[in-house]
Write a structure and sequence with these properties.
There is one protein chain. By secondary structure, this protein is α+β, with helices and mostly antiparallel strands. Strands 3-2-1-4 form a four-stranded mixed beta sheet, with helices on one face. A hairpin with a 4-residue loop joins strand 1 and strand 2. The N and C termini lie far apart (43 Å).
Length: 78
């Protein structure tokens, strides 16, 4: 079989994002356990701040965006 070998589940990085309210909530998980998080009141500025906040979160954990294996997104009224 060709392609990229399966990543050890203990090393998988997931970025969870919730923008369903006035608060931006981000969490970085490794093997299902929280590594870092951001919870910030953004109101209507979420779209202007989300990428900078994600960059800060990843940099603080020593990760680059390409090292993420999955995203988890909240779906709601916001």
């Amino acid at each position: 079989m060709t392609g990229t070998p399966a990543l050890d589940p203990r090393q998988r990085h997931v970025l969870a994002i919730d923008t369903t309210s006035d608060y931006l909530s981000l969490a970085l998980l490794r093997a299902g356990r929280p590594v870092a998080s951001v919870y910030a009141l953004c109101g209507t500025r979420t779209a202007r701040t989300i990428f900078a906040r994600i960059d800060e979160l990843l940099a603080g954990a020593g990760l680059a965006p390409r090292e993420l294996q999955a995203f988890a997104l909240a779906r709601g009224p916001g």
